[in-house]
Amino acid sequence: AIILAIETSCDETAVAIVNNRQVLSSIVSSQIELHKTYGGVVPELASRQHLEIINPCISQAMEEAGLNWQDIDAIAATCTPGLVGALLVGMAAAKTLAMIYNKPFLGVHHLEGHIYASYLAQPELKPPFLCLLVSGGHTSSIYVKDYGKYELLGSTRDDAAGEAFDKVARLLNLGYPGGPIIDRLAQSGNSKAFPLPEGRISLPDGRGYHPYDFSFSGIKTAVLRLTEKLEAEGEIPVADVAASFQHTVAKVLAKRSVKCALDNGLDTITIGGGVAANSGLRKYLTEAAQKHNLKVYFPPLKFCTDNAAMIACAAAQHFNLGHRSQLDLEVRSRMRIDKVLELYQ
Ligand code: ATP
Ligand code: MG
Ligand code: FE
User: Fold this and answer.
1) So where does Fe cation get bound (predicted)?
2) Would the annotation count 135 as a binding residue?
3) Are strands 22-30 and 12-19 parallel, antiparallel or unpaired?
4) Ligand index nearest the alpha carbon of residue 13
C-alpha cells in the first residue's frame, strides 16, 4: 500500500510517502537550530514551527515521490506519545487530507514507528524478534510478537539513553543534541580511560539485579563527579570521557538486550530510536550477537532519529491488515506500546 504519513511528535516536522517498505520520499525538517539556545525542546515554539512548515513539507513529499493524490491509498499521522500541541498539528493536517481526498486515515504510535525503521531496510524481517528501542525519551526492550502485538520486557527506571547522552554532553559543554557529538568525539578517545558504573536495578530482598531494566542517572552523576575532579586537576580530556561514557552505555545496552533475546527464545534483535545510530552500540551489539548466533538488524542511519518514513511503514502494515482509525481519534501525550491495536477498528 502507498501511504503518506506525517510526524510532528517533537521537534522534527516530517512527511514521507512509502510503498510498504520502500521509501518514495522522506522530508525531515529539524528544529534543532530553533531550540539549541534553550538546550532542549520548547513545546510552544515547536508547535508554532510545525504549523508554519507542515504544508510545504507535504507538497515537497508529493513532488519528490512524483505522485498524484489518487495514487495515495491512505493518510497517517503520529497520534501518541509526544508533545500534545505538536502532535495536534500533524494530526489535523492528516485528517484534513483524508477528508478532502476521501482516503482512509490511520493514527500511529510513535514508538511503533521507531520499531518499523528496521523494516525499511530489511525486506525479510518479520516477527517474532526483540527490538531495543533507544531514543530521546524512551529506553525499552520490546518483544515484537506479531504485527501490532508487543510486550514490554524491560525499560529504563530513570533517564532514557538519548537523554543521558544529551545531559552528559551538556555537562561537558559540547552542545545539543549530545548523542552525535559524543559519538564523534568518542572515536578519538580511550574508552578504558575512566571506569563508570553500569547502572543496575536491584531486585527486592537481595535477589540480585533486574536482568533487563536500565538506569542511566547513576552513570550521568558519575560523569559529573569525574569531570569536577578532572577540572580541579587541570584540563578535562573530553574525548576520553566521551569514549568511556559511550563504551559503558553501549556495552550495557548490548549485553542486556542479548540476554533478553536469549532468555525469551528469540533469534533476532533490531534497534530503533536516535541512539540506534550510535557507532559504539552498533559495534557491541554486532559482536555480542555474533557470539551467541543471533541475527541483528539496524535501521538506515537517517531513519534512526525522528522521520515520517518509519511512521508510514508502520501504517502500511496496519492498512494491509485492514486496520483503520476513526477521524475523531485524539492525540495522547502517552500510551503504552502494547495498546496500539486500540487505535484501530
Ligand atoms: P522519543 O522517540 O522517545 O519520543 P525523540 O523522538 O526525541 O524521543 P529520537 O529522535 O528517536 O528521540 O532520538 C533523539 C535522541 O537520539 C537524542 O537524545 C540524541 O542525542 C540521540 N542520538 C542521535 N544520534 C546519536 C548517536 N550517534 N549516538 C547516541 N545518541 C544519539
Ligand atoms: Mg528530535
Ligand atoms: Fe522519536
Assistant:
1) 110, 114, 306
2) yes
3) antiparallel
4) 2
- 224 annotated binding-site participant: no
Residues in Cβ contact with 79 at an 8 Å cutoff, skipping those fewer than 6 apart: 87, 91, 107, 108, 109, 325, 329, 330, 331, 332, 343
* Average pLDDT for 79-99: 98
Neighbours of ion ligand 3 (CB under 5 A): 135, 306
Angle of the 178-186 helix axis to the 161-171 helix axis, nearest 10: 70
Cell triple for 238: 573530553
Which residue would you say has higher pLDDT here, 44 or 333?
333
Cα separation, 28 vs 57, in Å, equals 8
CA distance 102 to 95: 10
pLDDT at residue 40 is higher than 90: no
Residues within a 6 A CB radius of ligand 1: 10, 110, 114, 135-138, 162-163, 165-166, 177-180, 183, 273-275, 277-278, 305-306
pLDDT tens, position by position, 284-332: 999 999 999 999 999 999 999 999 999 999 999 999 999 999 999 999 9
Query: Closest ligand 1 atom, CA of 110?
Result: 2
Distance separating alpha carbons of residues 116 and 143, to the nearest angstrom: 13
Residue 265, annotated as binding a ligand: no
Q: Which of 83, 118, 305, 332 to mutate to test the pocket of ligand 1 (most atoms within 8 A of CB)?
A: 305
- Total Cβ atoms within 10 A of residue 331: 24
Name the residue type at position 250.
A
Task: Classify burial at 224, counting beta carbons within 10 Å of its beta carbon; exposed 0-12, middle 13-18, buried 19 or more.
Answer: middle
* Structure confidence at residue 37 as a pLDDT band (50, 70, 90): confident
The strand ranges marked E within 147-254 are 149-155
Q: What is the pLDDT of residue 176?
A: 86
Q: Is the pLDDT of residue 152 over 90?
A: yes
Asked if 57 and 27 touch (Cβ cutoff 8 Å), the reply is yes
Q: Is 205 annotated as a binding residue?
A: no
